[in-house]
């Protein structure tokens, strides 16, 4: 493998890794406060892409504004999913919320099939995103600059929010000890709603970047990225934001580098992602950055 | 309370026996089951096929003086769902014959169920040999992949002068793996050089990031890149990412490429690529096809796709068999289908061989200015 091909793969892997990280954080944040795997997260991701699509086609808004509208709508969607499907089950056994999450996932997917139709739609993105720059034999697309940049901005905002604000403190308190946090006068419901909004908002950002890179949207587009991001969150240690980022990168790198270095096994790359998962679970069951 | 229950049991038993006795009614509906992907990654293919099937159904609302009931079940582009769909059509809907499905990956599990149950099935566009192989109850209206692979290899070597090729295949799709094998076999035979396939790389259904695969392909610098994708969506993304990663070779593919989404998603990247397919409205060979094109345009205000044409043919093959044998019994339909000879279809003259496969011309198309364009017709060799 020549050096330029290696760097080409490296750029591709970084780009993919950031996308997985953005989605993985949604899983990990919700798990952190609720001890619940939000299986609907991949579908909230899908809805975000459709929100952009329809805001642009129906209201003919420019791309940038459509994205902002979509992010807000997705946050509201996350909020209402929590209200309708998870809050009534707050004191029920955990398995009930899990079933409810899977139910929401199917509901959103099939809602999208009925309303948006099963055929894929082409996703608009600004010209700069698909422009190719050749830097020393390595082809870099506009989106390869945009994805890391946008991700870093949002991830820094997130860590500011979680570690430097009152709301973040409340979130961390709830994830440490739900009941004590409540006794201390933390508004549990509000904080959990807030967490869902942030997680969904990041999913929306991820969805916009994802759909700009792979410009095809359809009702099941969230399933595969969702599962891989979920795996990433587990590998990194579910509940840990830093872990989700590292896990996202790891999954992105395995996806790309396995194909690059072992082309014969390219078709089985998912198997290797799950082998990595099993190894992590065997030797460090709490994940790379998880708490015991 | 006990009495009421017993009464109910007797009533239901009576009802059941009555319905069994009243079975072969003269005016009873003949149910033809259809399983097609209406959702999922093959949705466009299934929906295009349904346009043709609906037209055929509209033109043949009755057969043998009995009304036909066409029942469609969505197989969701999934293997397990496809088997369930066929089981549902046979057991619940009591279909006497099955039509479908787009995509060999769905048609193969469906055909297993139909064959086991002894219900005849006619595939519209599944091209993998395994759909019909060793299944006396399964037929198809289209050609098969050993031919399709050879057609594209031949086109690459003789028309494009290609000496080297890379193949990017979907390893989870029976169709793609089969077509990839046949293409490589023919390509090596035609170039006489076992090393002429300079690269083979796989991905899996559901992948959207192909950057690693196309980077690999670009690194081999081949004359052509053959992309037997399970779906048009995958193909469009592969071609798009391939051009972005600097592949300059001509892209070649198979019949799954033909969908409007291929051009919408692929945009500039799919221009000048070639693929094989079953039918083109500008190069029809039969009278039936001329009428079909006219009727189709009257109904949908656009030219028919190859899948609409095959859906139309598959449905009509079943009707033709029922008419010839004068019965709607599954076994009789099966026997009549097996004897189909020189049936004037929309996609050419159809004769079903001992495997239940049709031998037909292939059409090569390209993309020019955002439109599919006819290039050539290839006779069976």
Topology diagram in text:
The complex is a heterodimer of chains A (292) and B (381).
Chain A: H1 3-34, H2 41-58, H3 63-86, H4 94-116, E1 121-122, H5 127-130, E2 132-135, E3 138-141, H6 142-164, H7 166-176, H8 178-183, H9 188-213, E4 216-217, H10 223-236, H11 241-261, H12 269-283
Antiparallel strand pairs in A: 1-4, 2-3
Helix pairs in contact in A: 1-6, 1-7, 1-9, 1-10, 1-11, 2-3, 2-4, 2-9, 2-10, 3-9, 6-7, 6-9, 7-9, 10-11, 10-12, 11-12
Chain B: H1 2-21, E1 30-36, H2 43-59, E2 62-63, E3 66-74, H3 79-91, E4 97-100, H4 104-117, E5 121-123, E6 138-140, H5 145-159, E7 165-170, H6 174-191, E8 197-203, H7 211-220, E9 224-227, H8 232-244, E10 250-253, H9 260-266, E11 274-277, H10 287-300, H11 306-325, H12 330-338, E12 343-345, E13 348-350, E14 362-368, E15 371-378
Parallel strand pairs in B: 1-3, 1-4, 4-5, 5-6, 7-8, 7-9, 9-10, 10-11
Antiparallel strand pairs in B: 2-3, 11-14, 12-13, 14-15
Would you kindly provide a written description of the structure presented here, covering whatever features stand out?
- The complex is a heterodimer of chains A (292) and B (381).
- Chain A is mostly helical.
- Chain A has a single domain, classed as ABC transporter involved in vitamin B12 uptake, BtuC.
- Helices cover 74% and strands 4% of the residues of chain A.
- Chain A has 12 helices and 4 strands.
- A two-stranded antiparallel ribbon of chain A has the order 1-4.
- In chain A, helix 1 runs antiparallel to helix 9.
- Chain A is globular.
- With 381 residues, chain B is an alpha/beta fold.
- Chain B has 2 domains: 192 residues, Rossmann fold; 132 residues, Rossmann fold.
- Helices cover 45% and strands 19% of the residues of chain B.
- Chain B contains 12 helices and 15 strands.
- A 7-stranded mixed beta sheet of chain B has the order 8-7-9-10-11-14-15, sandwiched between helices. In chain B, strands 2-3-1-4-5-6 form a 6-stranded mixed beta sheet, with helices on both faces.
- Chain B starts with a helix and ends with a strand.
- The interface between A and B is large, with 43 and 37 residues.
